[in-house]
Amino acid sequence: MPVHDLGYRKWSGERADQLLRPLVIARGGVALILKRRWLRILLVLAWLPVMFPALGIFAFEFSSTEPDMQRMIVNVVRRPLARPDLAALILDDMDAARHEVWSTMILAYFRYPQLFTMVGLIGLIAPLLVSYDLRTKAYLMYFSRPLSPTQYIVGKSAVIWFFLAAVTTVPALLLYVLGVLLSPDLSVISQTWDIPLRILAASVVLVLPTTTLAVVYSSLTAESRYATFAWFATWAMGFVAYQFLTFTTAAMSGRRPPRRRRGPINWEEYGVDLDRWRFLSPYHTLGKVESWVFGLDTTSASVLPAIGVLVGITVIGFWIVHRRIVARLSV
Amino acid sequence: MRDVSLRIPPGVTGLLGPNGSGKSTLIKALLGLLHTQAGNGRVLDYKWPRETKAIRDSIGYLPEDDCYIAGLEGIESVSLMAQLSGLPAREGLRRSHEMMDFCGFGEERYREVESYSTGMRQKLKFAQALVHDPPLLILDEPTTGLDPDQRVAMLRRIRNLATRHGKSIILSTHILPDVRSVCDHVVILVQGTVRVIDTLDNLSRPIEPTMHVSVIGDHSAFARRVTSEGHRVEWQPKSGTLRISGIEPEQTSMLWHWAADSDTAIGRMEPAVNSLEQIFIDVASGSMTAGLSASAGLSTDAAVQTAGARRAGP
Predict the structure, then answer these.
(1) DSSP state of B64
(2) Which domain holds residue B141?
(3) Are B133 and B69 contained in the same domain?
(4) Hey, of B37, B48, B69, B94, which one would you mutate to test binding to chain A, going by the most A CBs within 10 A of its CB?
(5) Which of A89, A198, B212, B279 has a CB 3.0–4.6 Å from the CB of A97, allowing a cystine?
(6) Of B164, B310, B314, which has the smallest distance from its Cβ to A329's Cβ?
(7) Which of residues 98-157 of B touch A (CB under 8 A)?
(8) Is residue B158 one of the residues assigned to a domain?
């Protein structure tokens, strides 16, 4: 046979299992997304907020020997994180406070910077996944291979899972490792072994419904900008609607918390039901469940309705995407 | 589709039919992309429609639509398809390069697919269909958008794959000269039913063996001589040929003798064949409805009986 044979040659190698093929879609999607320079920059920027909880854990672990550090962590826990009880516990018994301080720091990381990062990141990535495939009819290429719609959806969703894990789960786990490394001895692992599991559970809570929702929008239109708009609109309008409907009660009754106060506001004293309109806002629904996962839920209502909403979004969203893809194939 | 029953033998089979006749539906049903309400069969060695995933693993499908994965380079698209068919990454890349060489790609394989012309995308889809070395290829309008040179090259590749590499190929097309040049068998679908299945040779053969003969000079003496032998002779002024009925292509030596007897010089001689265009028009219009059965080959590539195909869902 010639060294450079341009003719057709047979191939008879070992083929990978069909169950692994969604991985190929995911790998291809990740590689495709990483080609974009702005996204690589965004990923680097998304890691910056991890500095704040890292600094918090650092300050906490050194607070026993450094009074300045202790003052700093106590102030942070008391004011921005609104946990005066925890601040008092830090002053009383550091070892007893460790689990809760670490959990609070990691939850704050999940809840504030990374939730916004997640919304931005998914809003920019997800429409590129299914919308583009609909526009360029790439789904015909995918389904000419032995793939089911479910495998296709899992493969596409896994692209988002990968990026979300990269900007939330991995930094959160690294925070935990940092905490362990900075602590006086490795016995802290026995106190905090459940935190990595809680991080993983919170990641699942964060990733599954949001990814499904984003893929739903992406599958509803071949115009990716509409999907992007719908995604951001859902978060923004949900947030505004929740804030408006929840806090107008207090405003209407004329009972407002004082401007200058110490400690967190107990809104229930002012007739505000923080849970009543929560299902309108994905941000607040996720916050409720994540707080519960970390054992830090402070509101009185049950977490089950919020879990129900997230499960509903995931299941119904998956069903819609499945139907959309199947409908496309019949054309 | 309804009451479809067909057996497609190895080789190249042309799938013909007017728009909306069910060609693409049949292809999608074979691939398991459409649910059939009833029916069963075998595609290659797999039960259809139960083992559609295995079937798709063994089929190379070139869709009619202009479809591509945005943002990928040509070589990446082929490699991705290779990996989706289960080839290891490195082997998939090697094989992708081979297939792109086979399909006539040069350095443009490193360009993004969006920048490709329609013809290049068509070749790209062909490379993607071939990359996992499937025993059966289903090509839906593979020559659409190709310039004449590329079209000839594509048809040559298709023929080459069938004859030298033992591939079975189903070629769905509207371009009848393409069918004439590469196909061994023809299936004609009309309104969701199979109207004709036969070998191209059988379809091309007139009901009565006939030869077209053009002579140099006056043809009347030669015509009289042939008529005296009991054959019907018809002068066709449009083509300037004599149409002689009842002569098999193997019996042409007789014609040479009779020409010598009548002192006539034969310029050209060829067996008459049915026009595929005419057969297609007749079948589509309903004036020819014979369900001719395939006589060539009993070994079956795809044998399918279906009572209806609707609704998607692989």
Answers:
(1) S
(2) 4-197+298-312
(3) yes
(4) B69
(5) A89
(6) B314
(7) 98, 101-102, 125, 128-130, 132-133, 157
(8) yes
Mutation for testing the B interface, residue in A35, A141, A153 having most B CBs under 10 Å: A141
* B234 occurs within a structural domain: yes
| B80 close contact with A: CB closer than 8 A | yes
Task: Evaluate whether A199 touches A173 at the Cβ level (below 8 Å).
Answer: yes
pLDDT for the residue numbered B84: 94
Burial class from Cβ neighbours inside 10 Å (0-12, 13-18, 19+) for residue B214 reads middle
Interval A268-282 mean pLDDT: 81
Nearest chain A residue (CA) to B52 = A146
pLDDT digits (tens, 9 = 90+) for B136-187: 999 999 998 899 999 999 999 999 999 999 999 999 988 888 998 899 999 9
Query: Among residues A311, A315, A241, which one has the least CA distance to residue A278?
Result: A241
| Domain count across chain B | 2
Provide the pLDDT for residue B41.
87
CATH at residue B221 = 3.30.70.870
Task: State the pTM of this model.
Answer: 0.82
What is the pLDDT of chain B when averaged over all its residues?
86
Task: Return the pLDDT at B258.
Answer: 92
Q: What is the pLDDT of residues B156-165, one digit of tens each?
A: 999 999 999 9
Range name among A218-227, A296-305, B112-121, B140-149 with the lowest pLDDT average: A296-305
Q: Which residues of B touch A327 (CB under 8 A)?
A: 312
Q: Is residue B290 part of a domain?
A: no
3-state SS, residue B190 = strand
* Domains of chain A by residue range: 21-42+114-167+185-257+265-329
Contact B16, B22 (CB under 8 A): no
Contact B67 A327 (CB under 8 A): no
How does pLDDT run across A139-168, given as a tens digit for each residue?
999 999 999 999 999 999 999 999 999 999
CB B137 within 8 A of CB B172: no
Write the Ramachandran bin of B170: left for phi over 0, alpha for psi from -120 to 50, otherwise beta: beta
Whether omega for the bond prior to residue A67 falls within 30 degrees of 0, making it cis, is no
Measured distance between the N- and C-terminal CA atoms of chain A, rounded to whole angstroms:
45
Pick from A135, A144, A326: CB nearest B312: A326
Q: Are residues B181 and B218 in the same domain?
A: no
Closest chain B residue to the Cα of A322, Cα to Cα: B313
Structure tokens at B188: 């004609």
Taking 90 as the threshold, does the pLDDT of residue A24 lie above it? yes
pLDDT of residue A264: 65
Q: CB-CB: which of B70, B77, B91 is closest to A132? A: B70
List the single residue in B71, B95, B125 with the smallest CB-CB distance to A35.
B71
Element (H, E) at B188: strand B185-190
Domain shared by B189 and B214, yes or no: no
